[in-house]
């Protein structure tokens, strides 16, 4: 599969923008479509400095990609954070995403092509992301790369 190298480079760079772009490219090749994403704010502080705002933030981004039939899919959980300067105390989310640096990355999957130990996701995550099953395969990054390379 193409895009595996870009995915690994994006993870190493810790750039949220690069990682989400690489994940989108992989999902496109798998014919997976992005479902409505879900963001959980963990920490957000804005402080005025010289007429601008210094913003510190941490969040989790949940991205659910699946086949139209929902018989297979991937759930990516990306914890990220960073600091940004803004003209307002509540900057647009795209500014924060652009400044975001990846702190942790998890892959969960469902469907016959994904192999890994199973976990149960919380009811809130399943509901907010419209995941058809609460039981998902928990795939570490190395195993995810190996499975992509075999496709």
The secondary-structure class comes to alpha+beta
Percent strand equals 35-45%
Mean pLDDT, nearest integer?
91
- Calculate the terminal CA-CA distance, rounded to whole Å: 6 Å
Tell me the radius of gyration: 16 Å
- Strand count, sense and closure of the main sheet? 7 strands, antiparallel
**Structurally, how many domains make up the residues?**
1
Count of helical segments? Answer: 5
* Low-confidence parts: none
Describe the protein's architecture and organization:
The structure is a single chain. Strands 1, 2, 3, 4, 5, 6 and 7 form a seven-stranded antiparallel beta sheet that branches. The protein has one domain. It is built from five helices and seven strands. The chain is globular and about 55 Å long. It is α+β, with helices and mostly antiparallel strands and 151 residues long. The N and C termini lie close together (6 Å). Helices cover 31% and strands 40% of the residues.
